[in-house]
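Same chain as my last thread, 147 residues:
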Amino acid sequence: MRESRRGGFTLVEVVVVIALMALMAAVAVPAFRGLSPDNALTGVAEEWASVLRHARTTALTRSIPVRVVLDPKGGGYWIESGDSLTHGRIITGANVSLTGSGERLRWIFDRTGGGTGSGAVASFRSGTEERVVGTDPWTGEIHVRVP
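reply #2:
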C-alpha cells in the first residue's frame, strides 16, 4: 500500500525561501534610498558644483579668466571664457528650489583658478533640507555644504 503524501513544505524549503527573500531585500533597500528627496537635493547641488569645477578647470588649463553667471529664478547659466560662451540650465525638479544671494549670481575664476572675492552662494532647498554651493573667494575651491 502506498503512503499518501500530505501537501505542504518541508522546513528546509521554508528556510531556503526566507534566506532568498532576505538576500533580495538586502540588495533592494539601498536602491530605494536613492529615491529620497535628500538624494535629489544633493544631486542637484553636486551638479551645480560640477559646473563651477569645470569653469575653474578651464581657467587653470587655458590660463584665462572665466566668468560664470547663474539666474536663480530660471536656473539658466552662462560660462564666458575668452571668446567662448557656453550656456545651460540646472534642472531642479519639482521638490527642489534654487535661491541665491542676488538676482544674478556671479563667480569669476582668474587664470590661476583662484576666486576674485565675489563669494556668490547658490542655495538648493527641499522641504526643510538645504545644500549651499559656493566658492572660497580667494582660492576658488568649490564646496557643497549643509548649513
